Amino acid sequence: QVHLVESxxxxxxxxxxxxxxxxxxxxxxxxxxxxxxxxxPGKERELVARITSTGTSTNYADSVKGRFxxxxxxxxxxxxxxxxxxxxxxxxxxxxxxxxxxxxGQGTQVTVSS
Length: 114
What we know:
Helices cover 0% and strands 48% of the residues. The protein has strands at residues 3-7, 10-12, 18-25, 34-39, 46-51, 58-60, 68-73, 78-83, 92-98, 108-112. Strand 7 and strand 8 (78-83) form a beta hairpin.
């Protein structure tokens, strides 16, 4: 059974940083391209970053480009999202998921506020 667990969220001031981690069970993570998504209150869920299965290629939403970095350590079966220079508009619940999967985890809350 596929299970995804996001962690690393929290409350941070504008300009601060957080690193999110994506743990999993029930499948071999390194076989899949993975995306980090977010959903802000009253908005639709959006893809903010994605990485290929080998980690050789990444893509970012324009809103986070230059501030967020997605990476993966297939030896640890973990995907990360390093978020720098955070803004209040980055406040959302963040989710990770292989792009091909329909299953979602519970997400991790990121709140950017002074």
